[in-house]
Amino acid sequence: MAAPQDDMFSLCVDPTKVSSCVEVRFIDKIKGKGLFAKKAIKKGDTIFIERPLVSAQFLWNSLYKYKGETEHILLPKIVEQKCSSMLSCEFCLRALETAEDNARRLSGIPDLSLPHPELCKVHPELHQACPQCQVMYCSNECRQAAADQYHRALCLGTSQEDPNHPISKLKDAWRSMHYPPETSSIMLMARMVATVKQAQDKGHWQKLFSQFCSRAANEEEEIAHKLLGEKFQGQLTVLRTLFTTALYDDHLNRWFTPEGFRSLFSLVGTNGQGIGTSSLSQWVHACDALALTSQQREQLDSFIDQLYKDVEKETGDFLNCEGSGLFLLQSACNHSCIPNAAASFPSNNFLLHLSALSDISPGEEIGISYLDCCQCDRSRHSRHKILRDNYLFICSCPKCVSQMDELDLTSDEEEEEEEEGGEAEGDDMEDEMTDV
Fold it and tell me: Could you tell me the pTM of the whole model?
């Protein structure tokens, strides 16, 4: 069941207090830690609900409406489609548009009216802005929570629109290197720094962040993160210089060294969990739960089907406010190509719900997929390439073991994608930054 909005402020960041049905265990030097069931978990059960230590909306996502994975090559068109209504709460990432406003913008139908508007959980009357820089929050509670944790160190005040402010320069540099589809954000790293800066107990937060894996290479397997090689040194140097100018703190001086910055970059790249929130999607799910007659259900389903067709025609399949966060308990879950659990965000905010995809026995490891649905269906060779490049390991899950005798070949579609990727390597390296 989705947690009420106010419940997220009672969730402790200490993962040992989040759930009594799981525990973190050390496995070995290769896999590190893992998450295991302490008692039987039934398929469909919510294993735990977790709030991130830090989270941030993707920078392009907060500014622009774009159509999908290939739209980033049409930058002039993106710029023409600038749209501030992709905005989410600066703290919890809750979508700030009502479901009806979201549907109108995405479908291009300005007078569209949604049936059952009472099912929309967005309350614009509760929204509040930071009095200094005017960034928006879904509630006074979120505004205060952000100010207490990190925002005072990052607030631009009256310089919010100043392109020469050090933080603005850092954001612009990141956008120039990391076009949509986005998978990470430099602001996740910035909020880590700001959180430690503001904390009275700085050691507590540093200890929490140190629990995330941050290695830039797997020496045992001789694997290095694809974005930390020599060909990206120029970009990393630029980002580190801007990052240092904007955020340097003596308590965290190691994070600003070349090696420390690489580790921090690797930390958010390998541990950041994608977060998607959508007031329209939440409204649709609420509609699915309505008790209706057969005729009413048919009419409502027909309306929703047509709405999605209109959205597809006008905007493509991009519906969410998107960002990423660092979840300490969820990050203990190892990858499996046949996962027994999956993360979702049904509360339309940053609260992660980990749910069981199958029955899980006491003592069984809880595994999630680091790959999306399409990637999971690819060949063992292709899955291993993605996991090696982005997560620095070679998968040995039951599915991969059962496919060990298969030839290291990809499908024609996969080969074509890899060929296109190879051609791109000869051009500017900017697009490669999208795979953080």
Answer: 0.81
